[in-house]
Amino acid sequence: MNRKETVNELQLLVYELDVESAMTKEVVTVSPDLAMDKLPKILKSNRITGVPVTEDGRLVGIISLEDYVRWAADDGKPSCVGDVMTRKVHTIYSDEPLVSAVSRLERFACGRLPVLDRTTDTLAGIVTKGDVIESMLGNLEIDYREEGLRTYRTSRFFEDIVSDSTELSFAYEIRGESISEGGEVASSLKKTLRRLGMHPDVVRRAAITVYEAEMNVIIYAKAGRVRVSIDQHHISMVVEDEGPGIPDLEQAMAPGFSTAPESVRELGFGAGMGLPNIKQCAESFEIESVVGEGTTLRVSFHMEEACA
Amino acid sequence: MEVATGPMTLRRIQEMLGASCITADPPLDLEALVGCASDLMSNVLAFGRPHAILLTGLTSPQTVRTAEVADCVAVCFAYGRQPPAETIELAEGSGIPLFVTPLTLYAASGRLYELGLPGCPEIE
Amino acid sequence: MCLSDIARELDLTVIYDGGDIDREITGGYATDLMSDAIAHAKAGDLWVTLQVHVNVVAVASMKDLGAVVLTQDRQPLPETLQKARDEGIPLLGSNLRAFDLIGRLYQLGIRGT
Ligand SMILES: Nc1ncnc2c1ncn2[C@@H]1O[C@H](COP(=O)(O)OP(=O)(O)OP(=O)(O)O)[C@@H](O)[C@H]1O
Ligand SMILES: [Mg+2]
User: Fold this and answer.
1) How far apart are CA A7 and CA A216, in angstroms?
2) Nearest CB to B45; choose among A180, A181, A208
């Protein structure tokens, strides 16, 4: 069966199968009183990225890894799940066709839908994109567990059925009043990546990259921004500024080349090693610069061990 | 006379450099794996190995940021130079112990090397 | 210890011999900050640095330093080399990082203050 035929069959199946056949029935739930810092362990040990919040079997909200990350990135003040969770939860009934789940997951850009029993209105299960795919592939008798096939099929079928939007992203402003303020972005990103349980080597390389880029923006361009996005396999970063631009990129990339004035060198910068460092740290590296318009740097890192 | 080379505790480093610790509750049992002497922050970041003790004359908050980002185990300032309050504050916040030695950067580095703290000679 | 002996012992590249490669080195000094060199380096010191710009030679000459050694295989800028020639300051190079180079100099008996 070629891919196109497979997709056609999948599209038929989503109308035939019901949510109950795909959902996970043993649902991990948490109470609204749970402390936020206990959440990652629960998510991680159950290998899930979000969990319904219940009170006496009644669904009162949902809390995801994404909520956790935002909470953690925003200082991580002691809170409990009830303060941070999303209260307005999109749900689905267990007897609805799978296609409703697919379209709801897609429309509301959420990773999971709590499933309710229509007669009792209590939580009956939970369904994720992964569950949908697993159930459909199971019905097609495709052994998706086969190594290699699994990742390929999962990612391709995602594209075909629902566009994957399980990405986390953060943005930071870089304001360069003085060199001594530089490094805030690197420091807070480092803490966030650490809290997410990423491999220390990846965290270190990502932090070094942001730090060097941040200092360059402060020293040469005064202001700019960093956007970081994380999916299951990569951390990608874009650092852009509207500064003076770099006239000769090849020269700027050469180790030791620097236009930093003496005042900057006295503050410990201007060794001409920043861009070469970034290139060394990142798995992919692209820099674009237009004189008088600004500079954009795009880098990415492969993650071996991300949490959840 | 051959000296055994290897990691060195912050306690021993402090003692050997006659240094004072200027951050609260220093974890003196932590070990520095290597020594790094530099006043240029990108050079510290390019230093390929975590758990280094950073010896430097630069006392700005950037030194702490750099140590944090590069996973240094501690920073030791030379020339008896007391860092500004913002540097100490930042270090307390990010858990980087700070020391101050009356020695020059040269003498402090030479002394630790002589006592067996390895450097990181190879340039990646 | 004389500069040529140090260069031989530690495998230093002689970029410019300063007109007298056998001069006596009386101590060691390391910094990448010009202000520190101005404040603390002593006449006759061998200066270990990663900085390659022309001010290094200007400061070395002003303070009567014995020589400058550039670490990590750094090459001097053309104007730095020119200034070294003008001022008669020996410029040497090492592939080591500062901590290692200082350590080995120290073991040769080149002490600092
Ligand atoms: N965002 C930017 N806008 C304009 N010019 C830049 C920017 N980033 C780098 N440059 C130019 O490229 C040169 C090399 O940058 P690089 O980060 O490699 O070294 P450096 O900043 O000079 O020194 P170091 O990073 O070692 O402190 C800079 O001196 C500057 O001229
Ligand atoms: Mg830079």
Assistant:
1) 48
2) A208
| Residue B121 belongs to some domain of the structure | no
Beta carbons of A176 and A223 less than 8 angstroms apart:
yes
* Residues in Cβ contact with A235 at an 8 Å cutoff, skipping those fewer than 6 apart: A193, A198, A202, A206, A228, A229, A300, A301, A303
C38: which chain A residues are within 8 Å (Cβ-Cβ)? Answer: none
Identify the domain containing residue C37 by its residue range: 3-107
pLDDT tens-digit map of A232-267: 678 899 999 999 999 999 999 998 899 999 889 989
Which chains share 3+ C-beta pairs under 8 angstroms with B? A, C
Amino acid identity, residue A285? F
Return all residues near A148 (Cβ < 8 A) that are at least 6 apart.
none
Residue C57 contacts residue C33 (beta carbons within 8 Å): no
Chains contacting chain A through 3 or more C-beta pairs under 8 A: B, C
Q: Domain A154-307: give its CATH architecture.
A: 2-Layer Sandwich (3.30)
Give per-residue pLDDT as tens, B67-106.
999 999 999 999 999 999 999 999 999 999 999 999 999 9
Q: What is the CATH number of the domain that holds B83?
A: 3.40.1390.20
